[in-house]
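Exercise 7. Given the encoded structure of a 429-residue chain, write a plausible sequence.
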């Protein structure tokens, strides 16, 4: 029997599926689970576009003590079922974060649960710390998809005595865990085909500027080519489908936009965000292709959505981003919001032309067969479709509440809210 940390005994665990990245923490968790829970360990790795980070991962997991090592190519599913819905929803957390890690975790957890069910495992495990958001995303997803699975979170387990990087290295050496590939950086990183995040190390002081050597996906704006790269992105019902007139599948389109964005220094964000657990954290993100897509989609919506729908969608977008950030991807509310989003995207079809230049995305054109922009209405010249004298009556009605309040004030029966404050009692130097 083992304990859940509250003194209550739990039935023994026979088989665990571990979310495995091959980094230092998850590498030592394999022997730690075997040593402390006396169970079989199966690793699960999602290929979300980490590229060379996946090299030799299966062999390493087996050498570390896993009985099986799953690696699934989930790149297409990642784009179509997670990135694109968030794009259509215009979901941005705290004005800057495009949620690259946030919507990757529920996808990983979804397949980890599927592997656990296939293998007859009675538990899943992850290497997230007790301070971060990812523990919530993994575990809430597990609860939503199979609440009968037990979750083992070593960093919160009373049996876990590894408290530092040095502790982890010592434990790895003691248990013959290969760790040479896990010690490349002082930063905590998460990479997929949408973004790269950087945390920890010097970034723990938000006053310190990130070192250029820290960045891995993108050129700095200063060293980007001194020329403009013009691109045209095509959308159908809010989904990006083409680049420069060429129809492309989701993966090919994402890869090409990543390359173009990276070359031109696009998509670097340095921000302090509010974690779900209550603390602030300083992180730096590289999202080259995603930043281009979000900008293009925003531009196209400006001509395809009416004012009331666009403004209400901005409210929905904030709520959507909060849900995703806080690990509620598999929630009824997010699915319901998708219904609203889908209606708004029926007319978001067309093309956007952008210039990429030294970290900047410059909009140079937008067009759509469903555009609500009418040149004959917007023109400052002579026109027959709009009678400018009609505006006079509208203004009188629109400003009527302000007019009534001002009249009351003038008649002496009220005080205007807009009276200039009297500062004469303040001393002046």
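Solution.
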């Amino acid at each position: 029997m083992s304990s859940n940390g509250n003194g209550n005994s739990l039935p023994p665990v026979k088989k665990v599926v571990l979310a495995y990245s091959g980094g230092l923490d998850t590498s030592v968790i394999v022997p730690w689970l075997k040593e402390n829970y006396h169970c079989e360990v199966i690793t699960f790795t999602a290929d979300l576009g980490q590229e060379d980070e996946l090299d030799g991962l299966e062999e390493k997991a087996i050498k570390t003590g896993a009985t099986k090592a799953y690696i699934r190519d989930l790149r297409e599913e990642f784009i179509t079922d997670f990135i694109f819905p968030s794009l259509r929803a215009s979901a941005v957390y705290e004005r800057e974060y495009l949620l690259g890690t946030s919507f990757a975790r529920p996808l990983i957890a979804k397949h980890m649960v599927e592997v656990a069910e296939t293998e007859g495992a009675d538990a899943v495990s992850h290497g997230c710390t007790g301070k971060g958001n990812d523990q919530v995303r993994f575990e809430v997803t597990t609860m939503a998809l199979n609440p009968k699975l037990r979750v083992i979170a070593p960093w919160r387990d009373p049996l876990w005595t590894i408290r530092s990087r040095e502790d982890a290295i010592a434990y790895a050496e003691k248990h013959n865990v290969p760790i040479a590939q896990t010690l490349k950086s002082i930063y905590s990183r998460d990479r997929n085909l949408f973004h790269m995040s950087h945390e920890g190390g010097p970034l723990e002081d938000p006053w310190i500027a990130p070192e250029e050597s820290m960045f891995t996906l993108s050129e700095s704006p200063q060293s980007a080519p001194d020329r403009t790269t013009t691109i045209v992105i095509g959308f159908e019902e809010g989904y990006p489908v083409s680049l420069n007139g060429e129809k492309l599948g989701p993966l090919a389109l994402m890869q090409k936009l990543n390359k173009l964005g990276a070359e031109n220094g696009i998509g670097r964000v340095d921000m302090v965000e509010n974690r779900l657990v209550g603390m602030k954290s300083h992180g730096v993100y590289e999202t080259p292709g995603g930043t281009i897509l979000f900008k293009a989609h925003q531009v196209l919506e400006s001509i395809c959505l009416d004012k009331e729908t666009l403004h209400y969608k901005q409210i929905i977008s904030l709520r959507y981003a909060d849900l995703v950030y806080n690990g509620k991807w598999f929630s009824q509310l997010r699915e319901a919001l998708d219904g609203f989003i889908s209606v708004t995207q029926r007319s978001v079809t067309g093309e956007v032309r952008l210039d990429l230049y030294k970290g900047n995305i410059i909009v140079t054109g937008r067009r759509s067969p469903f555009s609500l922009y009418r040149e004959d209405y917007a023109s400052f010249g002579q026109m027959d479709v709009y009678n400018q004298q009609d505006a006079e009556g509208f203004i009188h009605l629109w400003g009527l509440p302000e007019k009534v309040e001002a009249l009351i004030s003038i008649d002496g029966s009220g005080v205007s809210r807009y009276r200039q404050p009297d500062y004469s009692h303040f001393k002046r130097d």
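Remark. The mean pLDDT is 92. Students should compare their own answers with the one above.
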